[in-house]
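Quick look at the format.
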Amino acid sequence: KGNPELQRAQIDNFDLKYEYFPGNGQVISATAFYKKFKNAIEQVNSSNEDRLLTFANAPVAVNYGLELEYRINLAYLFGNENQILNGIASFTNAALIKSEVDVSKIVGSDAETRTLQGQSPYVLNSGLQYTTPNKKMSFSASLNRVGRRIETAGNVYELDVYENPRTALDFQVTKTFFKQLELKLNLRDALAQKSVFYQDVDANKTYNADKDNTIQSGNSARVFSFSLSYAF
């Protein structure tokens, strides 16, 4: 359900970033950030109707943290120009985030603050890639994980609905033929971990199927795919 009284959100962003480029497409960076929200827009449960999703403004919210990123060739890392190491790259992007929404004036709320709807306390993307010396074949593996986050903010009648953390692991193999023909084989979500949305009834910040209210759950599927492309 929409909300005709929804106000435009305004965000003040402050960032301090350091970057180092060793060369050959490599990068090392660190960023500290702070964001202040006025009228942050959140997905919430309507207080008038049971389990009806709508949108509302949170008057004041802040978001701050640290982000680290690198993409490094292993030959550079170990100071060795070995052909195999020269073809292996490691990459990671990780962020630690603290978010706070002032809920002290919400009727029936016992807390002073809670996390911003949709914001995870951490995000991790990491992987390895290997390219053969002749550049005709490459292999890559990537991992993604996000921390527990509020999927739908609650109210005096309904608890917040959380999305349980899950890890996604993907693989890809690429082979080039005759410089113009490229074959890609992909395996997405190899771990196929269950997706769970729940209300944290025992307030222990961990999903407990016996005590918490499971709002929605489902098994993820491993997805195999391939593509063939030809460049003219």
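Next, a different chain entirely:
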Amino acid sequence: YVDPRVIDRLVDETGDNPDDLAAAGRQEATIFFSDIAGYTSISERLTPAGLVHLMNEYFNMAGEPIMETGGLLDKFIGDAVMAFWCPPFVPTEDIAKLGSKVAIGEAAMIREFQKRVPDITGIRTGAPVVDIRIGLATGDVVVGSIGSANKRNFIVIGDTVNLSSRLEGANKFYGTQTLICERTHEMMGNGFTTREVDNLAVKGKDEAIRVYELYCAGAPSQDIVDVFGAFADGLALYRRCDWDKAAAKFNECLKAKPDDSPAKTFIARIERLKTEPPGKDWDGVWHSLEK
């Protein structure tokens, strides 16, 4: 029910004054949010007991890499998983790298988990498809024991938490699996393949951030290098309102990778912007209207 490291911290910090118990403090953390795509339709196909069994198996799989890397599994929210990495549990310089490592690992693990779904659910033909979307954000948060006089939780709160949740949801719009914020991208270090996807103002925020797709660990195939290069060129042309040349670059992406959803997203967006041109003060920021 409570991470053993949190219990140790609570005991260590009790001291003579119970009010000092794990007092909340501000620090930098990497926040992880994941969600199951199409969870509602999955839940409709299973009995309550069957759904609980499936979710317990899934949460067991999802929680292991988080704990193994020193992350704290904050909570399960329906089908969502929330976790974070921060001192004193892991060094500050490692928080984004560890979060990114887990995100890539979870994306791979879910493909293996899908093979087990027929046995878990007892549905041999037409078993539910379990896939996930992930958001990672790094920034200042408040971490500690927060709550009322009678009930407290050791949690993390702040705008970075909200941003992580919004990035998880934004995957639906871009057709990606994992989106990360600019700060995570800066701190994650080498060893990952990413591409800038957009300059996005998520719902509820006026300030835009550069958003990146976390694609894989290590170096990708040459085809992906070419696709990401064409996408970057298209993104630069798009921001200069050079619609036709931008669309041509995004179509290059689709020739090499026909299922490249971010390229499809921008081609559709460009068609809309051609008929409804932005104002002269347009800064290339896309304002999301969905969570």
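The radius of gyration is 21 Å.

See the schema section for token definitions.
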